[in-house]
Amino acid sequence: MTAAPASLPTRPGAGSGSTLLLLLRLRTFVALILVFGFFAFAAPNFLSAANMVIMSKHVALNAFLAIGMTFVIITGGIDLSVGSIVGLCGMVAGWLVLNGLDLGQAWTIQFNMVEICLIVIAIGVGVGVVNGLLITQLNVAPFIATLGTLYVARGAALLSSDGKTFPNLNGNPDYGSDTFRVLGAGSWLGIPVSIWLLVVVALAAAYVARRTPLGRHIYAVGGNERGAALSGVKVNRVKMAVYMFSGFCAALVGLIIASQLQAAHPATGETFELNAIAAAVLGGTSMSGGRGRIGGTIVGAFVIGILSDGLVMMGVSSFWQTVIKGLVIIAAVVVDQAQSRIQARVVLQQQAALGR
Amino acid sequence: MSGPPIGLSIRGGTKVYPGTRALKAVDFDLRMGAVNVLVGENGAGKSTLMKVIAGVEELTEGRMEMEGRPVRFRSTGEAERHGIGIVFQELNLFPDMTVADNIFIAHERTRAGIDIDRPAQAAAVRAVMRRLERDIDPDALVGELSIGQQQIVEIAKSLAKDARILILDEPTSALSAAEVEGLFKVIADLKASGVGIVYISHRLDELIRVGDYITVLRDGVVTGARSMEGVDVPWIVRNMIGDASKDFPREGPARFGPEVLRAEEVSLPRQGGGWLVDRVSLSLREGEILGIYGLMGAGRTEFLDCIMGRHPHATGRVLVGGEPLAGDVAGRIRRGVALIPEDRKRDGLIGTMAIRENLTLSSLRDFARLGRLDLRAEARAALDYAKRLAIKAASVENPVFSLSGGNQQKVVIGKALMTRPKVLLMDEPSRGIDVGAKAEVFRVMRHLAGEGLGIVFVTSDLDEVLSLSDRIAVMADGRVTAILDAAEADAAKVASAAAPATSRLEDAA
């Protein structure tokens, strides 16, 4: 964080539009620097390496969900089910580590760690498929479809253990599942595995968004679904893809949490979907679709994560934390509106200048 | 001047939109107790003029007077307070609410400002309906009424607000012959009670029958205004399209290649019976421009949509280069068909994206290798097409909506061309763009046809279809009513073939 804060625009009016615009465009980043700077002074031990690692582990969980959510929101949809998918996937992972798959007649299949991860991911993607099918084939509004799967997945998670926690997910070396905890607790080059995973997923997502036809189609569907369809974009396929990816991200989070805690609790992940939406919106994703960037979302996730961890370190009550988080989100959206108005004006001025 | 009193007048009315001048120093008098007919081609400025009167838009220059006092409507509410009511072509009704609720929407009769006084509303509706001599139950759901009855509800909505001036925008376009008769009777009654009526329609015979005064608009200018006495169809047509025909000559002699597109008995059922497209068969050769002329609702757009595969229930066959066309839009684009839709904003452009991204949206696979976009090649191609089509933009990275209408249209055309089509379908390619941009778009069309592209274009502009087409197909009521060679076609022939069966001209001059 060596970037010097840009000087505040002191010249109001039409002429200074571009400076103001640049500042507004980088607003999430500015917010991140402000939040970071504030806690560096105000919270003891905030800048210690250990704290950095812990915070980024927290942020990573939300960031995974927010990346998946960003694509969904860019297509003009919403995925409320991710929190429940986290819970369900955690429970499935716990079940498989503890019990394996009971085939009846005293036969039980035990899986190694890789197999468990693949099965859990398949379940997360499967919920995404259900969301996608409901939305594209049965024309259910995304809000309602994913609200439904939110309840179903949460209920399934609770049913899987009768509401109890699966404890002591240490795995069994005989089955090759003792490495399960590496996902949440392991590290490489001093950086936790979950952070490496986040880097990989975020880079892949940013690549898809910027450099592939699928990415372009995702933006097109959100910008104008009719227009996209008429241009030859396979709208339904695009929508399926984003909900499946969102499910995939949620499954990863479920695995990581179960591995970190070495336990799976069916209520894990409640309200995670709201944090993910908040990070995406804070990062500049437009709820009306068509706009948003993975980089922005990651920064947004960091703002939210650092804010809540820093407040905890300062000893602010969790009730106040909630209020502050809400205020930050509202402020972000207000600034977002201001930016798009100013941006439109600047572009029109450019075009008018061209017409002279 | 003698005759009925003038209720509203506009002097020097000018309205400028970004990129176009919709009205140019228009003078308009609206006479009370009479039917003031307004006629002109699409884009001539009729709707803009009516929007100004109804308070939807404000004049850029010029003034508006009512009974000698200058007025200015900043909102529809203000216009309503001055007794102006408008019935748009697209009805603005809530199908799931009752007739009374619709009529009193946003100024409900209430008790103590909270509780809706339904009996009072119902009584008021019955009174209005008696005045209109219609028996429509105030408690009926609007969605269950026929289109003609819904039109009456719209008129009643205006009358319930004590409208002294009533604007009817193409009121008969969706009505059956019997319903049209009913509407004319209502108009006559309203006229007798002193209401000033503005009547907009494309059906020339209807105008002559119902009108007392006529105003003709062309390209935002009033080209004729007089009392209806002695007005005939040729007079209207002459003023509508002018004597000086805009010409777009082809480059060199016409050379048509083999047949590239063939539609066989294409049909599309209408929801609730009837046909939107009724057994349309057409063929198109390479290098040919086929103009489809017809009024709004003649099924032209729907026919193009059928070719494009947007309607799964469409029947009939479409062949491109002798091979039948099937599958979804993406597959059809790959087979060499491209559509330039009528509504740029709704169907043509992705508003959140840059010009470059819009241009390449249909042809992204050309820039992708192993799923990776070659952004540099993409930018090169976008720049190349922007130059070839003379798109005036500061940068291809600017948002597409920063462009003027004509340049937006060129982006849509560029997007279609980047798929290297064999057949180009253009739905009202000149809609909403000014004269200069129109000429440029037409030049591009000529040039493309010269390169061997087959072009089908739809228009409701007589002048355009006559000057641009090699062959003209006229559609009415979903059917092809005439196919004319450019040499044998003239305005009267085309116009009479385009009139719907419900009010076909007996003798079109």
UniProtKB/TrEMBL annotation, chain A:
| Organism domain of life | Bacteria
Membrane-traversing stretches? 28-47, 59-78, 84-101, 113-134, 180-209, 240-258, 294-312
Which InterPro entries does the record cross-reference, listed alphabetically? Answer: ABC_transp_permease (IPR001851)
Q: How does the protein's chain sit in the membrane according to the entry?
A: Multi-pass membrane protein
Where found in the cell? Cell membrane
Q: Decide whether keyword Transmembrane helix is in the record.
A: yes
Keywords in alphabetical order: Cell inner membrane, Cell membrane, Membrane, Transmembrane, Transmembrane helix, Transport
Specify the protein name.
Answer: ABC transporter permease
What organism does the UniProt record list as the source? Rubellimicrobium aerolatum
TrEMBL record, chain B:
Q: Which domain of life is it from?
A: Bacteria
- Please give the Gene3D superfamilies that the UniProt record associates with this protein: P-loop containing nucleotide triphosphate hydrolases
Q: Which UniProt keywords apply?
A: ATP-binding, Cell membrane, Membrane, Nucleotide-binding, Repeat, Sugar transport, Translocase, Transport
Q: Which PROSITE patterns match?
A: ABC_TRANSPORTER_1, ABC_TRANSPORTER_2
Outline the extent of the ABC transporter domain. Answer: 8-244, 261-502
Q: Which SUPFAM superfamilies match?
A: P-loop containing nucleoside triphosphate hydrolases
Tell me the Pfam families matching this sequence. ABC_tran
Enumerate the GO terms in the molecular function aspect.
ATP binding
Q: Does the keyword Translocase apply?
A: yes
What's the protein called, per UniProt?
A: Sugar ABC transporter ATP-binding protein
